[in-house]
Structures are given as structure tokens and as C-alpha cells.
Write a structure and sequence with these properties.
Chain lengths: 400, 122, 305
């Protein structure tokens, strides 16, 4: 029987992991992920989760332990955040190259220096190139559901790629919402056991994780890239199946809200999209044609869907909680590439906000649409890469 | 998978688990789908490393098997010959993979192994 | 009956590799896997043995094997063992075994090793110690002995080589209260094989630290490996010992070490036959002798001799 409970994002994630039946859980605690691993250890203690829970001594070891288990054909789970994600960064590439379908929850959190435990998205966005599928959830229900979908997608033999599920630190991880928890029967119907040839075998032993020199190396990269591209259709198939089993339909790699005839579109990731949606509705009520594009998957990157959603707009802005120093926000870079490929040219702004857990208000977002309208009219009212709360003119008075 | 002919290994050597030379055609778009491949797949020999090779005197060999124990490469292996047969040593040399390090000669207390230059061998 | 040359399997699980001629490390892997049998699952970090054993398409392990990230041998071993057990797929005669070098164990790998021992994971960790980062070109590790020339402790007019003493890795591991730890040498390979066999029968974490000379890095002839590995034990600069059930035991406790410095078995003879110790002065050699004596006093006290 499915049930409904009032859970934090971390707790919802833990429920999703439980339902996915991993064989091995290995994780190291770090704020704001800690509740995930605490709940999982409680589930193991109660017998609700029949997994080996390994108390690893670092994040690097957490992912390496998960990888060792994956080498045996086990379904594995780990979770981390920020400094921990960066500490295990070497292993991200390793696991992806080894094509191990490990699922990891990442609590998006600012990275040092300076030290900061609050949510922003620099940690995972800085690591897009390491070969992991990366999804960004909107709310606690999606956090739970994505755990099941992540395994289904990652373990698909056409894909065989590790999967990082990103939850905004504190905004999702520590915020409570009513969540529907599917039954184990439903979960088992949706997610079959993990089967693979990419594992040890006592009848026909294998050598794994080997070196490949210049003669062969590029083929591995090519195959991994192609497999991740192939995930685009598998994501859609999986969401279709998910809807059939659980009754919730997810919108694919992007969620386009009122974009069809929009003059100005705001593109964003994660939980802030909820607030942005309210601003879109308010402006629409006043007759302004605005829209919101929530990118759910940053890798593989949905080039065609992004371009389709922005086609015909007079201007677009990307609101993201990261910056690639000396350049621009990474999401902005990826979105601009999508438009370039499609042959669309239009004015754009990059809104860099929420860094170090900074709050973003409805008024702040409202100002972004204003700035876009000005930019479309040829007026430069701000820098193209504008830092909210520092040099965004519509937020005057908010600077420190 | 085909196994290439090896040299120095007696025809009656016992069948064992050991990495072997293979002649498989490798299709990169197949094998590069993962870093997981059948164990013990070899494509090259180490014979070319040698400047000297061990030659075993079966009449001096006492079957103490120290050479077998101490070979870093596993290229001196047991013949399982009858100990009273003085025409066959207790061990043979796998000349496809012997690197000619000479450890076998050094550990033999019975002077049953000589290191002979490759140039002097047919 | 204890494993010996006659009864050990004919199977060769590590074969066809590209290690240097006379490589001590490869003998460690070869014999350990023969003792552990076909169901051993081995994990090796970056280092000599993985570099020479797993270069696609030359794959030199006949058993299930994987290369791990450099720091992570013990963490991957833990994961392999947990994964097999969680799926009910672990054969009774399966040992999950790691082979890591001195750098991969005592330096970058120490944290993960400590974690595995703390959790008492059912794995066997074997450190093949060639006393430097040999794979990357002979750089100093924390197990490089005093006076050894390496490419990062060059012997010049200021300093004659490595200035630090070998880290007491065996005692560090024992201090965790590990079920079983041992030291060994490729010069006494049968002793090593019996220790591997013993470890195989013990549940929990096991550790063996085996000296494995590297002719390339130590500056000796390729056929000297075994003799040097015997002499390092006989002159007392290495020791054969075990830690089990909370107690230390010395497997060999010579009444007297060779004092004639021209003779085999003396510290001086051992040092002078290797290129890496060429620059040591008489005084420095004497300091090494005194260090040996101090070590043996401590070891004998630990072992209750």
C-alpha cells in the first residue's frame, strides 16, 4: 500500500533508496546530506532495508566502496555534498569510465572557500564533465521518485552509466512536504533486479578497470558519450513506465511552463523554479507573456528541447546558483550552445544568485523579467552576467 | 578464442589455469563499452626481453622445486615427470615468457641450471 | 599439511606480465594467488603490479581482478566483499585480496586501510614493499629506508639520500587490534606462502607486509633479488614476525647478527651491494647498525622474548 507522510527532502530520498533495494550503501556524513544516511542506517537496523551498510572513513572511500560492490554486480548507493563531492571527484570519472550504474544523491551546497554549508549548485555543476548523468529535482516527491528512476535509467544495458540526483541543500533537503511513498510491490514492479555482464564472474573470470593506451583509449570515451546521449530516449521511456506504475508523469528532460508564446523566458534548475512559477503566473495575470523553463537533466544536455522551448522568445535569462569564475554561469553556457546549434539568436542575461545560500525572493525574480524586457528593447540596464544582491540594479539596497 | 602455439611447453604438460596468448579479432565498438574483459587474455610474448636463457640439466635436477617457487614470472613450471627418470627434469622452461633474469640459476643449490646466451642457441 | 612447492597448485594466476626481469613484487602476487586459488578476487591500485599486469589487451590475471584508484585499495576490497556477500555470491573459498605497494599503502592508501581494519572487513591486504614509488620512477615513499638514494632524495654533497626512517607500518596496523598481521620477505617465499594460507583461514581483516626488492630501483643485478631479500632479513634490517590474537611473535630471532662487515649477512655487506646506498659514509652505516639494534630491542620486548 502506498502511504502519505510529511517528510523532508533527505527523508524522501532515503525512502526512495529503500524502495530501490540497493545491496550496498556506503556513505560518509556531510551537511546537509546527513539525514539521508541516518535514515538509511535506521532502516537497515529495523530490517526495512536489507543492505550492507558500510561506515566508510571518507567520501573518496564511499564511492570507491560502492564501485567495488558494483564490480560484483551489486546495486549500490552513496550520497554526499559539496566538499565531499569534490573529494571523490577522481572517482566520478573512474566510475563513469568503468560504466558502473551507481546512484548518488548530492545535496547541492556551496564549496569552500569561504566555508559555507548552505545551498548553491556550484558543487555538481563544476563536475558536469565527469561522465555522470545529472538530474536536478524540484521538490521532495521528485526526490523520492527520482531515486527509482535513476536506477532504472542507469542500469539500462543501453546506458550503464552512473547517475547523480541533485537536491538543493536545505531548500529541499531540510524542507518538509507531504510525499506519497509507493509500496514495495509497486517499486519492484517498476525496478527489476540489476543484471549485467560488467562484473566479476567465478565461472568466467574477468579483468576490470584496466589501462588502455593511445591505440584504444578514444573508443571508450566515444562509447560512453554515445551511451549517455542514448539516455535521452531511455529517460522518456522510463517516465512513461513510471507513470503507468505510480500514476505520476514527469515531463522529460525539461519542464516548459507557459513557454509556447512567451516573449521572455527564465531558465533555471531545481527548487527555485517553484517560486519562479508564481512570478510567471502573476505576470501572465497582468497580460505579460512570460514563461519558465526548468531544466531537469543537465547531462545528457537536452539541446533540442531547450532550443524548442526558447524559440520565438524576445529574450531569455538563465537563473543559476553557480558561477564559473572568469567566464559565466555553466547553465548559461550550455543553454547558449543549444541556441547556437539551432540557429537562434536573441538577447540573454545570466542571473547568478543564491550563492552561499543567499535567499532569492519573488521581487528579485520579478526584476529579472523586467531586465529581460529592457535588454530585448536594446537597453543595457545591467551586465550580461549579473550577480544578484551585488550588482543587480533592481535589488538596490540589498547589497552588503 | 583461439590459442596461439607456445614454445618450450612440453606437449604433455598438465592443463592448468594460466593466461594464454589469444588471436581474437578485437572490435573496439564492442570491447570499449566497458572496462571489463575476459581474464588472462594475452597478445604478446616476453621472449624478446631475454639475453640469456636457462637450460636445465635433468641429471643434476633433484626436484627440489626451488626454481619453481622463486621464478617471478611463473615460467619455470612442473613437468610432473617420474622422479627416477633422469632424462626429464622436474621442471621445464616456458620460453615464450621467460625473461632470462637468472633467479632460477641462483636459487638452485645443485648446479642444475645454466644461463646460456641467446646468441649461442639455435 | 602446510602449503609447499610440491602441493601448491600448478595454476598460474599472474602470468605474461611486463614487470622487469627479476621483479620481487611480481613474485609476491604470483605465489599469493597460487595459494589463494581460483576464486580469489584481487584488487590492485596504481603501482607496478597493476601497470604491468593490466594493459589492454594484455590482461595478465587469470582470476577476477580490478584496478582501483590509487588511495582506495582497501575501500574497494571492502566494497567487493560486501557486494559478494550481500548477493549471496561469495564462494566459501573466496578471498578478497589487495596487492598494493609501499606508497599505495603507507602513504596515500593508509587512511582507507585504517578504515577497513576498523570495520574488520573480511579482506586480505598484502603490501609488496620495494621501498619507493618504483612505478613512477623511484621516488621516496614513507617506507624508503634511511640513506636510500631516490629520485626525490638524491644523494649529493649535502645529503646522502633519504633522511627519514621506514615508517613502522606493521606496528601501526597491529595497533588497530587487527585479527592477523605479518611481515615477510620474498627471500623466504615459503614462509610468505604459509602466512597467506593462514590468513585465508581467518575471518576479518588480515595484513601482510612483504619486502620485495626491485633490482631497477635498488641498483643490483636482476638475479640478485632473492639473495638480497634473504640478506635483509638475516642482517636484521627486516624481520619475520606475526601479530595474532593481540600478541606479537618473532618467527626468526637470530641470537647474533653477522658482525664482520665484509661478510654476507652484515648490515654493511647488505647496504654496499646496492647502488642506492652507495653514498653512505662509514658513520652513516654505523648509524644504521645501531638503528637495527634498537629496533630489535623494541621488537623483542613486544614479542615478550
Amino acid at each position: 500500500m502506498a502511504s502519505r507522510r510529511f517528510l523532508s527532502g533527505d527523508e524522501a530520498c532515503a525512502e526512495g533508496v529503500r524502495l530501490a533495494r540497493p545491496h550496498v550503501v556506503s556513505a560518509y556524513p556531510i551537511t546537509p546530506q546527513t539525514v539521508v544516511v541516518e535514515r538509511l542506517s535506521e532502516m537497515v537496523e529495523r530490517g526495512d532495508l536489507n543492505a550492507e551498510y558500510v561506515h566508510v572513513e571518507s567520501e573518496h572511500s564511499a564511492l570507491c566502496c560502492a564501485m567495488g560492490a558494483s564490480c560484483t554486480g551489486a546495486r549500490t548507493f552513496t550520497a554526499t555534498s559539496s566538499q565531499g563531492l569534490l573529494y571523490m571527484a577522481e572517482v566520478l570519472s573512474y566510475a563513469a569510465g568503468g560504466r558502473f550504474p551507481i546512484v548518488m544523491m548530492n545535496a547541492n551546497r556551496a564549496t569552500a572557500l569561504p566555508w559555507n554549508i548552505y545551498g548553491d549548485q556550484r558543487d555538481s555543476l563544476a563536475l558536469l564533465d565527469h561522465g555522470w548523468i545529472q538530474a536536478y529535482v524540484l521538490d521532495n516527491q521528485e526526490a523520492l521518485d527520482m531515486m527509482l528512476m535513476a536506477y532504472a535509467i542507469a542500469e539500462d544495458p543501453r546506458i550503464s552509466t552512473p547517475f547523480m540526483v541533485n537536491l538543493d541543500g536545505f531548500a529541499i533537503t531540510h524542507t518538509y512536504e507531504t510525499v506519497e511513498i509507493p509500496s514495495q510491490e509497486q517499486a519492484d514492479e517498476f525496478l527489476p533486479p540489476y543484471e549485467t555482464a560488467n562484473r566479476f564472474d567465478f565461472e568466467n573470470p574477468v579483468n576490470m578497470g584496466y589501462s588502455a593506451g593511445p591505440e584504444y583509449n578514444r573508443y571508450y570515451k566515444y562509447c560512453a558519450h554515445k551511451a549517455m546521449k542514448a539516455a535521452e530516449s531511455v529517460i522518456e521511456e522510463t517516465e512513461e513506465r513510471f507513470a503507468q506504475v505510480f500514476g505520476r508523469k514527469y515531463p522529460g528532460m525539461v519542464e516548459a511552463y507557459r513557454c509556447d508564446d512567451a516573449d521572455y523566458v527564465l531558465v533555471t534548475l531545481g527548487s527555485i523554479a517553484g517560486l519562479a512559477r508564481s512570478v510567471v503566473d502573476a505576470r501572465r495575470a497582468e497580460g505579460q507573456k512570460v514563461g519558465l523553463l526548468r531544466i531537469r537533466y543537465m547531462r545528457p544536455f537536452p539541446y533540442a528541447r531547450v532550443a524548442a522551448a526558447l524559440e520565438g522568445a524576445k529574450a531569455f535569462g538563465v537563473l543559476e546558483k553557480d558561477i564559473s569564475f572568469g567566464a559565466e554561469g555553466t547553465v548559461f553556457t550550455n543553454v547558449n550552445s543549444a541556441l547556437q546549434r539551432a540557429g537562434f539568436v536573441m538577447p540573454s542575461l545570466n542571473f547568478v544568485g543564491g550563492l552561499g545560500g543567499d535567499d532569492i525572493s519573488e521581487a528579485d525574480i520579478d526584476g529579472m523579467f523586467e531586465a529581460l524586457a529592457s535588454r530585448a528593447a536594446g537597453e543595457k540596464t545591467c551586465e550580461q552576467v549579473v550577480f544578484l544582491g551585488v550588482d543587480a540594479p533592481w535589488m538596490a539596497g540589498k547589497e552588503a | 578464442m583461439e590459442e596461439m602455439e607456445t614454445y618450450g611447453v612440453p606437449a604433455n604438460a598438465p592443463a592448468i589455469r594460466i593466461p594464454t596468448l589469444q588471436d581474437t579479432q578485437l572490435d573496439p565498438l564492442q570491447f570499449a563499452q566497458s572496462t571489463c574483459f575476459p581474464a588472462g587474455h594475452l597478445v604478446t610474448k616476453n621472449a624478446g626481453w631475454r639475453q640469456v636463457r636457462p637450460v636445465i640439466d635433468p641429471t643434476a635436477c633433484t626436484a627440489c622445486l626451488q626454481c619453481y617457487l622463486y621464478c617471478p614470472d611463473g615460467t619455470i613450471r612442473k613437468t610432473h615427470a617420474d622422479p627416477v627418470d633422469s632424462t626429464q627434469a622436474a621442471v621445464f622452461v616456458d620460453l615464450d615468457f621467460c625473461k632470462g633474469c637468472g633467479i632460477c640459476k641462483r636459487v638452485c643449490k645443485f648446479d642444475a641450471i645454466k644461463m646460456v646466451p641467446e646468441s649461442e642457441v639455435d | 599439511m602446510a602449503v609447499n612447492a610440491k602441493n601448491v597448485t600448478d595454476d598460474e594466476f599472474f602470468f605474461g606480465h611486463k614487470a622487469c626481469a627479476g621483479c620481487g613484487g611480481s613474485l609476491v602476487v604470483r605465489q599469493a594467488l597460487k595459494v589463494l586459488g581460483p576464486n580469489a578476487v584481487s584488487a590492485l591500485p596504481a603501482g607496478c603490479m597493476s601497470a604491468v599486469g593490466f594493459n589492454f589487451p594484455q590482461l595478465c590475471f587469470a582470476n577476477n581482478s580490478v584496478i582501483t584508484p590509487f588511495a582506495a585499495t582497501a575501500a574497494v576490497l571492502t566494497g567487493i566483499e560486501a557486494g559478494l556477500r550481500a548477493q549471496g555470491k561469495k564462494p566459501d573459498d573466496c578471498t578478497v585480496v589487495g596487492f598494493a605497494g609501499d606508497g599505495g599503502t603507507a602513504d596515500i592508501g593508509l587512511q582507507a586501510l585504517s578504515g577497513a581494519i576498523d570495520r574488520n572487513d573480511d579482506v586480505l591486504y598484502i603490501c609488496y614493499d620495494n621501498e619507493a614509488y618504483m612505478n613512477t620512477g623511484i621516488q621516496k615513499s614513507s617506507l624508503t629506508p634511511f640513506g636510500a638514494k631516490t629520485t626525490t632524495t638524491p644523494a649529493g654533497s649535502n645529503v646522502h639520500g633519504c633522511l627519514t626512517e621506514k615508517k613502522n607500518l606493521f606496528e601501526i596496523v597491529a595497533a588497530h587490534g587487527i585479527p592477523y598481521a605479518a611481515t615477510a620477505s620474498v627471500g623466504y617465499i615459503q614462509d610468505f606462502m604459509r602466512k597467506v594460507e593462514k590468513a585465508k583461514s581467518i575471518k576479518g581483516t588480515k595484513f601482510i607486509h612483504i619486502i620485495a626488492p626491485c633490482p631497477t630501483g635498488w641498483g643490483c643485478a636482476v638475479d640478485d633479488t632473492i639473495d638480497i631479500a634473504k640478506e635483509i632479513v638475516d642482517c636484521g634490517l627486516w624481520f619475520l614476525a606475526e601479530y595474532e590474537g593481540g600478541s606479537f611473535k618473532l618467527n626468526r630471532d637470530p641470537k647474533q647478527f653477522q658482525t664482520d662487515s665484509t661478510q654476507w649477512g652484515s648490515v654493511e655487506h647488505y647496504l654496499r651491494r646496492q647502488g642506492r646506498f652507495k653514498s653512505l659514509t662509514e658513520d652513516e652505516v654505523q648509524a644504521v647498525v645501531e638503528g637495527r639494534d634498537a629496533t630489535w630491542e623494541r621488537l623483542r620486548a613486544l614479542a615478550g622474548c
